[in-house]
Design a protein that fits this description.
Elements: H1 4-11, H2 13-27, H3 29-32, H4 36-56, H5 60-75, H6 80-88, H7 90-101, H8 107-157, H9 160-184, E1 188-193, E2 199-202, H10 204-210, H11 214-217, H12 222-225, H13 234-244, E3 246-255, E4 261-272, E5 278-287, H14 289-298, H15 304-312, E6 321-333, H16 336-342, H17 345-365, E7 369-374, E8 377-382, H18 388-415, E9 423-439, E10 442-448, H19 450-461, E11 466-469, H20 471-477, E12 481-489, E13 498-506
Parallel strand pairs: 9-11
Antiparallel strand pairs: 1-2, 1-5, 3-4, 4-5, 6-8, 6-9, 7-8, 9-10, 11-13, 12-13
Length: 512
């Protein structure tokens, strides 16, 4: 029988795949450089085969996929540690997802999670064995090829001087090829000597990342040559690599020689000579500034979780919508027209910015995201993997925070002779369609439906510093909030009456 934990994972494969792809591409540069659709298809196929293995106990199909995938990853140059790190991510993502979507205080869910993680660890061990076999097979193939080349070389050495000249030319061509390969890499490459830490290689990509010219740094001690590059402690990297063999993948913020801010992944390995001696350190730098900037920029408009999920998808955004139960909040300043009539436009602009700052901070702190601003009116949505009750409670908690912060702001406004800002808030929960509306050339992410319209009408009914909620929201937060029944009200544009509730007090957010 399928456990509750496995059923939750089975019913939310798409969400699990979104999170796994996002974590892989953000945390592991090796996967970020792979073809996006291929990574997503691989993760989704793995997930479905793992579910079949967990549910049926048969791992034949999963093993076949592992053999195919391992051969592909080995051919792409991934190491066993990189492959295993990717697999190890699956257990915590499963655990987080099941805990978010599963019922609270359910002992069977905890047992299900434990059983699922145990099975995932068994599958991971099997994957390690299969990957090792694939790597060994490739190594044997390369060794056979190397032996064949060695035999050819031995035969050619008999041609004495003429053949020696040909070999010399071939070696020169190989060195030139290696140099071209290094310069074509998306990563910046820096090589330093073990004993002197002088720079012996500085790729073109490294020049672009650091804003330093290779001719100005080659042959100089790294600590001196890289001094204009702030944020990278190369002395520490060099010492760590020479003494321990590697510098682990680290995400850091740097400032280039021209003052440009960048976000980079840095890792380093020992460089060995032909005799096996430690010759130096190879430092690899991956610039991920554009991705970080994209996430930070769009997080100003929608939740960071939504941005990460969108970046993990491989198809373009369309106009399709998704039916979902959400809690929507509308807020509007009371008497805004009268206020605007009596103050200059510059003062009105400052007032709106102060007000919207309070709104955005309060809503985001409680897990919501701003859908839109319409003048002084704010629309926000509370949804996601949390339960409907948690989303509804987060919305009323955000409303309380808004009133408290505006109250504190009003004290200074009144002391300065300005009119206070009073906001009416309406909150409602219900089924609505969430998605993009508009045209392929201009879209707007929003929610539409009767539940949204009711929330707006409740906002219109609310007095200054008052929050009114609909019946479904009231049912979801009952027990965590003290409510006052305002009876049924007929609202504009709707035939049926709406049951309205006020909020007298709410419990702390951590309480059940």
């Amino acid at each position: 029988m399928m456990s509750s934990a496995v059923k939750i994972l089975h019913d939310n494969v798409s969400l699990f795949v979104d999170r796994m792809v996002a974590r892989l591409t953000i945390a592991m540069p090796a996967y970020a450089r792979l073809d996006g659709p291929s990574v997503r298809a691989s993760v989704e196929g793995f997930t479905r085969d793992i579910l079949v293995a967990v549910e049926t106990g048969s791992s034949e199909k999963l093993a076949a996929r592992m053999r195919e995938n391992s051969a592909e990853r080995v051919a792409q140059g991934l190491s066993l540690s990189e492959y295993m790190n990717a697999l190890f991510m699956s257990a915590p993502v499963c655990r987080e997802l099941v805990r978010e979507l599963g019922p609270r205080n359910d002992p069977s869910l905890a047992r299900g999670i434990e059983q699922l993680e145990t099975r995932l660890h068994e599958i991971t061990a099997m994957a390690a064995s299969i990957f090792t076999e694939a790597a060994a097979k490739q190594l044997r193939s390369k060794n056979r090829e190397l032996n064949r080349l060695n035999q050819e070389l031995a035969a050619r050495e008999k041609a004495l001087t003429a053949e020696g000249m040909k070999i010399g030319k071939a070696l020169a061509s190989a060195n030139e090829f290696n140099a071209r390969v290094i310069e074509s890499l998306a990563s910046g490459i820096l090589v330093t000597q073990a004993d002197t830490s002088k720079i012996s290689l500085f790729s073109q990509r490294m020049e672009a990342i650091s804003d330093l010219a290779a001719e100005d740094v080659l042959g100089r001690r790294a600590q001196d040559a890289l001094a204009p590059l702030q944020g990278i402690d190369h002395a520490l990297i060099h010492q760590t690599v020479v003494s321990t063999g590697r510098f682990p993948l680290t995400k850091i913020q740097i400032t280039s020689a021209k003052g440009r801010k960048r976000t980079v992944f840095v890792r380093a390995q020992r460089l060995y000579s032909q005799d096996g001696d430690v010759e130096g350190a190879v430092v690899v730098v991956d610039d991920v500034s554009e991705r970080e900037l994209l996430i930070d920029s769009f997080s100003r408009y929608v939740s960071r979780d939504l941005v990460t999920r969108l970046l993990a998808r491989n198809e373009p955004l369309g106009l399709e919508g998704e039916r979902r139960v959400c809690t929507v909040l509308f807020a509007d300043i009371r008497g805004f027209t009268r206020i605007a009539e009596h103050i200059p436009p510059e003062a009105l602009h400052r007032l709106l910015n102060d007000y919207l700052h309070v709104m955005v901070e309060s809503i985001v702190e409680h897990g919501g995201f701003i859908d839109k601003f319409v003048g002084d009116k704010v629309m926000a949505l509370f949804t996601g993997p949390r339960s409907h009750a948690e989303s509804a409670f987060s919305a009323i908690a955000a409303a309380r925070t808004i009133h408290l912060r505006l109250g504190a702001q009003n004290a200074s406004r009144i002391a300065g002779g300005d009119a206070p800002i009073e906001v009416g808030i309406g909150i409602n929960t219900g089924e609505m369609v969430v998605g993009n509306v508009g045209d392929q050339r201009r879209m707007d992410f929003t929610a539409i439906g009767d539940a949204v319209n009711v929330a707006d009408r409740l906002q219109s009914l609310a007095k200054g510093s008052e929050t009114l909620i609909g019946s479904q929201t009231a049912e979801l937060v009952r027990g965590r909030a003290t409510l006052k029944d305002h009876g049924s009200h007929q609202v504009k544009g709707r035939e049926g009456a709406v049951q309205v509730f006020g909020i007298e007090s709410i419990a702390d957010e951590g309480a059940e």
